[in-house]
Amino acid sequence: MHEMMKTIRTLLFIAVLGAGCATQPSTGDYRTQVPIELPPSAEALLLRHQKARCIINVGTMVYQRKNYADFLVVSGTILLTRGPFAGWFHQDYVFEKDLKKKDWSEATLYCFRNRDDGLPVILPDELLSRPEQELRKYLIPAPIWE
């Protein structure tokens, strides 16, 4: 009986999380309160690469075209279904796209490194103001959750 109740609780929890994915809109940029939506090709890449069920929230998104690539910095929360952080997971992602590509489907996905590793602490939306050599120091390949 106890195992059955535990299973029912787990199923209810999953159902509530699923409903949150289906109904939870992005809260938008905290500075302007304007809703933020990722380009569809970037969203598909992020969900596929991270094996995430959905994007819960995008807090900030910054785009910049440099002379060597397009960059999209996204601070958001996703629902992971696998890996050590299964559940809601907040991360700062950086997409790097070749200038010749029209969408983000083949972009390289990075995580934004901003911890005590000798680098000055900067906010994700400040990253793109850095020169290329310094910018690259903050990028680490996004993990692929198996």
What this model shows, in words?
The protein is α+β, with helices and mostly antiparallel strands and 146 residues long. It has one domain (26-141). The protein has helices at 2-23, 40-50, 132-137; strands at residues 52-65, 70-80, 87-97, 108-112, 139-141. Strands 1-2-3-4-5 form a 5-stranded antiparallel beta sheet. It starts with a helix and ends in a 5-residue tail after the last strand.
Q: How much β-strand is present in the residues?
A: 25-35%
| Termini Cα gap | 33 Å
Parts with pLDDT < 50 across at least 5 consecutive residues = 10-33
Major β-sheet annotation: 5 strands, antiparallel
As for the number of domains, it is 1
Radius of gyration based on Cα positions: 17 Å
What string gives the helices and strands in order? HHEEEEHE
Count of DSSP E strands? 5
Can you give the mean pLDDT? Answer: 76
Name the helicity range.
25-40%
Indicate the structural class: alpha+beta
Helix count, per DSSP?
3
Shape: globular
Enumerate the strands of the largest sheet in spatial order, edge to edge or round the barrel: 1-2-3-4-5
Quaternary organisation: single chain
Chain-wise SSE layout:
Elements: H1 2-23, H2 40-50, E1 52-65, E2 70-80, E3 87-97, E4 108-112, H3 132-137, E5 139-141
Antiparallel strand pairs: 1-2, 2-3, 3-4, 4-5
